[in-house]
Every structure is written in C-alpha cells, then in structure tokens.
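Section 3.1 - Work completed
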Amino acid sequence: MTTTLEPRGTTGKPARGIRSTPPRSRSTGRAPDNGKIFNRLAATCMTLFALIWLVPFGWALITSLRPNNEITANPTLPWSNNLSLDAYFNTLSNNPIGWWYANSFIVSSLSVVFTIAICSMIGFAFAHLQFRGKAIVMGVVLAGLMLPTEAIVLPQFMQFRAMGLLGTYWALVLPAVSAPIAVFVFASFFRGIPASLIEAARLDGANWWRVYFQVCMPLCRPAISAVAILTFISSWNAFLWPLLVLTQTKSQTIPVGLSGLIGGSAIQYAETMASAMLGIIPLVAVFLLFQRQIVQGVANTGIK
C-alpha cells in the first residue's frame, strides 16, 4: 500500500503552486429563505383574517350612514353619495341606549372586580397551598371549561328565581364570577413565582393572606389585566342569560336592548346598523387601549 505525501516547504506550509482549499460550510443558505417565506405566509394569513373581520365591519358602518330607501333598493351597495348621521340621532333619541350603556358598564365592571378577587384567591390556593382533595377540586374547576353555558341555564334560572334575584344586577354578576379560565390563568401565573420568594416571606412571619396580598398580587399584574379585559368583554357581549333575567326595558344591557330594535314588522336597517356600531365601539376602544396587556398576560400565563 503506497502513500502519497503532499510536498511542503521548510516551514510546514503547502508548497508554492499548491492552493489550500478551505473547508466547505455545511450551511446551504436556505434557512433565511425559509424564514422569509414563513414571514410572508404569516403576514398573508393575518391580512386575510383581518379582512374577514373588517369587511363586515366596514359594510355595517357604511350601511348605518345610508338612507333607508336606498338600502332597501340596493342593500349590498358599498358606497353612497347621501351619507348622513340621521340613523344615529334617531337611534339615540328613540331608545334608552344611555341606560343600556350604563347597565352594561355596571355589570361588566362588577364582574371584573369579583372575578379577579375570587378567582385569584382560588388560583393562589391551587398553586401554593396543600390540602386534601386538591387534585379533585382542581379537576372539577377545570371541568367547567367543557360545560356549555346553555346546559345550566334552566337550573341557574330556577336558583336565582328562588333567591329573588331576577331583574337585578346580581343575577348577571354572580354567574360571571365562576370563570374556570380565570382560575387557570391565576394558578399558572402564581406557579411561576419563585418559591424562594414566598419562603422568605413566610420566614419573616407573613401569613398566607399577607403573602397573597403583598407578595403575589403585585407581581401578577399581567394576569390581572388579561383576566379583567377578557371578563369585561365577555360580560359586555353576554346575551342569552341577560335576556332571560332582565324584564324591564331600562334594565337591559346593550346586546339585549339592541336585539329588540329588529323585532318590528318594518326593519329600519340604517338604525339597526347604527345601534350595532354604538354597541361595538366600547369593546373596540377597550381592545385598542389594552391590547398590549392582553398579549403580555396571555404570554406570561402560558395560554395558547
């Protein structure tokens, strides 16, 4: 077996006339291209989903500004030369929308306060306290995520009727407090707090209530923001349960009150769309103002 030696100079370097070939990189250069393709595909999907939401919203906005006779003649026309705010003025003057706004705001605000107070304590107990049957109780709470609201409407209605709470704000606030998703959010966030921090507070003589109020709650502001915003939106949009328990017109919320505008024989399409736009404006404002807190809270709590 013969071995061929490469001619070298006196210094051990390759001789003149023989070029050393650098080793080839294993990187093919396709990763950046794949990243660009993925980013473009994601941007395209986001744009399509945004259009799916914005097209009906824009159509409702334009319809609310068109005259009723023009809407009846051509309801799908995307534009009009006779745009006006008459439908908004008629809706505000002929219906107690101010009361509906006030009722929705009161119910949603109370739901947010009680949901944060109660669900955060339950989540703290699941995260840091040890008691018998903890896994069973946690499973029962999370099983509420699989239970549809419509399945418990009848027994819930009978219960509140026996308690004499029908037609009151408490009939809307108390069912909203039992939010398994809020318990899961707080429990996940509390588990992320370092155990050494809680142990240090306990060694300093702090009881569990003090640990909850002064140590854990100030650290879970993102979770509080996410739960507060999601609870406010869900309470504002609730329709079936408020429709059953609220009987007087002035005590109705925005979704229930707006549904009554289309119950007549002659539907005023412009006023109907104007009322729908008036009902969605607070939700859009809340989302635009607090969207960073929503994203931060969802990211920190690990919800997918």
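Second construct:
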Amino acid sequence: MSSETGLKRRNVAAAATNSTLGGERHNSSNNELGNSANNEGGDHDENENLEENEEFDADSKQTRLTLMEEILLLGLKDKEGYTSFWNDCISSGLRGCILVELALRGRIELEKQGARKKSLSNRRVILKSDTPTGDVLLDEALKHIKETDPPETVEAWIEYLSGETWNPLKLRYQLRNVRERLAKNLVEKGVCSTEKKNFFLFDMTTHPLNDSSMKQKLIKKVQDSVLTRWSNDINRIDKRLVALLYLAHSSDVLENAFSPLKDEDYELAMRRVRDLLNLDPEQECAKLTVATSLEVIWAVVAAFNK
C-alpha cells in the first residue's frame, strides 16, 4: 500500500546525509520503553500497559487527543474546517492510527514469532485485552478484531476498516464516517466548532478551528520531535511520537506541520524525516528484545511502505 506525500511540495535544495540511525539501538531499546532490561515477557507487558494507562490518567484533566484526532487536526484547514479534497491518503492513514492506538493502549499485539520467522506483513493481529477504551471508534475496531477468526494481518485490517476490500464478506468491518466522527470529538473537546457551508451543488458540515492553541501545540510537538528532541537512536524517541511522524507522513499531512518553519529548520526536519522513512521496519522490529506495541507500529509502517 503506497501513498504520495506532500513532502516534495516545497522546492528546497536538501543535501542527503548519511546520518546513522541505530548504531547502538540494541543497548537502548528498553530505555525507550521505560523498562529495565531485566524485565521479562509478562512483567514487561504489564508494565508497558500500566505506563500507557497512567499516561492517559495523568492527562485526563487536560485535553488529550488520540493519534486519529491529531492526524485529522493537522489535515483540517483552520478557517474552512475541512481536509483537502485532493488528499486521498488520510482515510487509510486514520485506520492505521486506530491500530497503533489500540496497540499503545495494550489492546492488541502481533502474533508471537515461532521457529519459522514470519515477516511483519504476514504476522496476524492478536487480541490482547477486550477491555473497552472508552473511545467509540477504537472500541468498534476492537470488537471487529475480537470477533474475527482466524486473525488477520495489519495490512488486511487497514483495508477492511477503510472498506477497501474486494471481499464482500469483509465490508461489514468498514468504519463509516470516521472523519466526521473524529471532527465531532474535536468539537466536544473545544478544539473545533461546527458550521454548514454551501458548495453550490451540496451543503457540507465543516469544523473550523475554535481553539488555535491546541493545533499550535500539536504543530510544535511535531516540529520539536525532529529538531530539538531528535535522537539518532530511534529507540530513544517516544514511540507515540515515532508513530505520529510516520502516520502524518502516510496521511499526507506532515507538510502542514513543517511549512511554517524557516528554510534552515525545514531542511533539517525534512532530512531527519527522510532518515526515519529510510529505516527498514523488518530490521528495526528484529532488534526488539521483547514484544511491545512497537511491533504493531512497525507493521503499520511496513503496510504503508508497500
């Protein structure tokens, strides 16, 4: 599954670099996950889930956005309140966000590797916990994954949830009106408002920006992730930020976060993003010493790289 991105829209001469990513990843992979190298299997999974739950609890007093909402917010035009009509990547990108969000919350994982190693594209998504997340879209997807036997791969789930499948029996898995439902979430959180606009032949509900500070914080977070908070060791970067960068690129909205940068910072950001995109998901996943949500993230990246 491939997507043309907006990364080439700005005509800035950027020299390619040979920045090394991951020269010592094997020594720091557990640092990124916030766990001791001594943790084993079940204890590691429990600690990771606890970290994710505590992260959401700590932010519950503030406006917390899911990955899906962040991607949509980056794609929304501030005043017009809708995404570009020419962006045909954001639909599948949002479905990838759903899978990553479920993994980060400890609800799904990839099947374990056996004696015969499987590629990321062939490993199936396994239910880890059916505890509701409280998010309607996430819980709807979680229900589909739970009821599916035999399990399906990450690439298959992106297609099913998008409705982009030739199998009529799988059309029931399609998540409908995802952008509109996410926009309503943003309205409920005070980030956007709701208006009706006439486009000559039809009326459309739009969601202009209501709280510009939320989007500016999001844009700054994306910019800082490749400027001030960048690390040549991918495992030292927060996994949610890694997912956000990849998914913003796959959804063709990353350029929206980088366009306000000065030329010098823009070139540096673009160079580091290209370094990130040049990583081999299979190799990066093979370096993980324990099963984590990063496996699902790399599987989503591999699906979009096709």
